[in-house]
Amino acid sequence: MQKVSALLLGNTNRLSLSDQKRALLTALSIMTWVVMTLYYIITNLIVRNNPFLLPYFIFLGIMVVSFWLNRSGFHSVAKTILLLSGNMLIFTYTSVKPIIPGPFQYYIANCIISLAVFGWEERGKAFFFVGLSFFLLLLARYGSISLLPSVHLSPEYTMETFFKNLLVVCGFSVLVVYFLVSVNTSTENSLRKQEIETQKKNNELIKINGELDRFIYSTSHDLRAPLSSILGLINLADLTTDPNDLKQYHSMMRERIGKLDEVLKEILDYSKNIKSEITIQGANIHSLLEQAIKDIQYSTGADRIKIDLDVPTNIEINTDIMRLCIILNNLVSNAIKYSDHTKTISMVRIVVTQIGGNVVISIEDNGEGIDPIHHEKIFTMFYRASTKSSGSGLGLYLVKEAVEKLSGTIHVASEKDKGSTFTVTIPSKYSPTPQAV
Ligand code: ADP
What we know:
Blueprint: H1 2-9, H2 17-47, H3 54-71, H4 75-94, H5 106-118, H6 123-142, H7 155-239, H8 243-275, E1 280-284, H9 285-296, E2 305-310, E3 316-320, H10 321-337, E4 346-355, E5 358-365, H11 395-405, E6 409-415, E7 419-427
Parallel strand pairs: 2-4
Antiparallel strand pairs: 1-3, 4-5, 5-7, 6-7
Bound molecules: adenosine-5'-diphosphate.
């Protein structure tokens, strides 16, 4: 269909699908008329029973012009010329007295072409040409105008042409209806696609709206809490001149400011994950993890944790690195944050393997662990699984959202007081659909 369209219409990129189909229908109607006219010219030349071939030749010339106009983008002019000259040609042969019934059937073809090529938007023009066909049909049948001198045909020949004309008109009508049904189906399909897209966007908006409500409530609380305690500490500092007390208040303020900074960083990550498009870049997973560890090495308690990095240095990954960093930084910092101070040795073990087209990152710790009742919920927004948590409860939500954007999966295995293992699987070459493991 595309090839036929390119051949008959040239470049149709700027046309809508239905306009393109209508222009194609105009071109095919012109071609059918041309083939039929040539057929009549040849048979009449062979049988030599029609001395009036000039109208056919004039019509052929007009059809060539009309075809060229249609191909050059003047679709409306081409349609108008096609229907005017088609009706006039039929009238020329139907006006002959005594009447030859065969050509009358072409008025039906003209009516169908009028409705099909103009469509609903230009129905005024379509009905004008339908009216013209009816008028010419009645004029030819009952009027006294005769554009050609009389010819006398044998009843067998008259019957034969009647049948041939019937065949052509029927075939042509089927072609036109087929095209209309096909335009209708394509339009319906594209409407259905749009509906699914809109529904998807709607669901996303409902989700984002709900999240935004909770987001405003929780973040404003998380931002106010450290601010209020800093304000309290400043008031306390105003009341003392003891350098030791002042030192302690400053250290407490620094800790609250750190907390504030953490919340703001998570808000920024949230916004980056929602807003930015996927940007694919190549990176070395070992280097990314080294950087993530470097970033948290001065956080509270990090110095007493043994970090074991079991990651081959040659694993390259092609994905959205900004999102991958959100995943790694949050998981590594949680493994440190939720370490168990009562244990003699606190450790974090990071293992990366390549399985098929996927990279599997496992971050294991022997920290405080998570009770199984929380496993499902820890990935939801603002969910904190332990009373010890000083975080905002956004980290794992961000991790899950980012993993999904990278077409990956995340899994948690954890036991209270024993430790946790978070396993992230993502395609080593980003693809919008998940890779089989
Ligand atoms: P936050 O750390 O800000 O509270 P997260 O979304 O990162 O929020 O984590 C949600 C909860 O999951 C935390 O409150 C914590 O109870 C639990 N959690 C996350 N990672 C670990 C881990 N490695 N070990 C133990 N508990 C964890």
